[in-house]
Specification:
Elements lengths: L2 H24 L3 E3 L6 H15 L6 H24 L1 E4 L6 E4 L2 H23 L1 H4 L3 H36 L1
Helix pairs in contact: 1-4, 2-6, 3-4, 3-6, 4-6
């Protein structure tokens, strides 16, 4: 058996396990700490900046694909953030959040689509006239847009809830 073939099951099993964990975590209400919502976007943006700054400037078609992926990520992240139910305890001002089944299905679908397309794109990179690094950058920007927009949208709604709760 070739080493390349033995790795194939793991490339599909790991994403399926990750999706299962996301669904289990998202199906119950969790405490939402709005004061910490900036941490993950900051880490992701730092990783993206470091990754992109270590490379040459992308060609125009790749730059267009990166901007498209970033825009799609922002749009899907904002939409997914809107599907998350956020509640506040009027007495303690503690927030809880719970992902909607539709939002979880979106993430699971995007995750599976990403892995399927990534495998195709990586095996046909020369035919698509792109390098594996350029493909990775496109997916990286999509993920960054999704996470950052989702967190921002949730933070805005949580702040509005807090303001309304304090006013009443």
């Amino acid at each position: 058996m070739e080493p390349q073939n033995s790795a194939v099951p793991w490339t599909y099993l790991v994403p399926l396990i990750a999706i299962a964990i996301m669904v289990l975590r998202g199906s119950r209400a969790r405490r939402l700490r709005i004061e910490r919502m900036w941490i993950m976007p900051t880490l992701i943006l730092t990783a993206v900046i470091l990754s992109l700054s270590a490379q040459a400037a992308p060609r125009l078609p790749v730059l267009a694909a990166e901007m498209f992926a970033l825009g799609m990520g922002v749009g899907m992240g904002w939409w997914r953030g809107r599907t998350v139910a956020i509640t506040i305890d009027p007495a303690t001002h503690a927030f809880t959040s719970k992902a909607s089944p539709l939002g979880m299905a979106l993430i699971a679908g995007v995750f599976l689509l990403r892995f399927s397309f990534r495998d195709y794109a990586m095996s046909h990179a020369s035919e698509l006239h792109v390098t594996p690094v350029e493909i990775t950058d496109v997916f990286l920007l999509f993920a960054a847009g999704l996470v950052c927009a989702q967190r921002l949208e949730m933070w805005i709604r949580a702040r509005r809830l807090l303001t309304a709760t304090e006013a009443s």
